[in-house]
Every structure is written in structure tokens, then in C-alpha cells.
Amino acid sequence: MENTLKVHDKEFKLYITAEKIQQQIFSMGEKINQRFANTDPLFLAILNGSFMFASDLMKQVCIPSEISFVKLASYQGTQSTGQVKTLVGLDINIQNRTVIILEDIVDTGKTLSEFLPVLKSFQPKEILIASLLFKPAALKHDIKVDYSCFEVPNDFLVGYGLDYDGHGRNLPSIYQLVQ
Ligand code: 5GP
Ligand code: MG
Question: Cis (ω within 30 of 0) for the bond into 48?
């Protein structure tokens, strides 16, 4: 595993190893298995960023459940554009279901603050948020992150699903921008 690498024009350094990520996902899976054993939850993974996290978490989930995917976007380059666009919508009935949103990272919380009311309009029983990463210092919206694997500082990260202009999502570890 390399300690620094280049994605496009920028340099990144190793921040969270693949091994540490898997450990934290394992313990999140255990908590979810216990709490939602009898609720048949629907996991709703937000693409593209959460694809690796969703895949690894779901391998730890051993209770009756379903998974579906929606695609949203709010980032361009290393700055939030501040505009959330729903690209691929919900295609499953969530009325009276427990919905667990799977996110790669909660940053300002804008994505979820725009998406949650849409989701609530379909009358789920409850909505919970499970995010791989959470940047508490960047949070600007009233969002409660129910489960997160790591709380991270307000730095730009790539890898394990997170991209820099489309690149770096395939990295098994998480890297931090070198300023
Ligand atoms: P929010 O709407 O909470 O500000 O941002 C959520 C989305 O912004 C995340 O799902 C993610 O796609 C993107 N994002 C936020 N912080 C980072 C980061 O450090 N690196 C990358 N690659 N994307 C981020
Ligand atoms: Mg995302």
C-alpha cells in the first residue's frame, strides 16, 4: 500500500487503511444486525460514492433486508456545487418500511437535507442514516447521523468510493489531499 499517490493533478496521502475500514464496517454491521433484526429494513445506498461501503457493509448484514440504490450529486472537483440533483430516483415502495440510508460521507449535510423530505413524502416508518464518514465540523444542516464508521476533519478525501473528479473511487484505502 502506497503512502502517497497522485489523482489527476493533486497529491494525496494515506489517511485510513483498508484494514481499519473493514474493522469499523464489521462493528457497524453487528450493531445493525442487533437493532433491526425484526424490522426487515430497506437499505438505500446513495450512488456513486457509497458503492464500496454498501457492498462491504451488506456482506456483514445477516438479517432479512433489501437493498436499493438512488443516484444524487452535489460535488464538482473539490468544492460542493451546493446544488443537489436526483439523477436516478426511488423505484421501490417504502411505505411503512424502516429505511437505512447508506452514504459515503456526510459533509455539509445538504445532500441529505434535500433528499430526506422527498423520501419522507413516501411515508416510511422511519429513516436512519449510516455513513462511512462524517465531517462534524462541516455540518450546516439539521441532519442526525445515526451510524458512522469514522468522524473526520474538514479535509478533502478520496478512495473507497470517494472520487476526485471521477477518479480514485477504486482505491481500497482512504487518502487525504496534501495542501
Ligand atoms: P454534503 O451534501 O453533505 O455537503 O456532501 C455530501 C456529498 O459530497 C458526499 O456524498 C460526497 O459525494 C461529497 N463529498 C463530501 N466531502 C467529500 C470529500 O472529502 N471527498 C469527496 N471525494 N467527496 C466528498
Ligand atoms: Mg455521495
Answer: yes
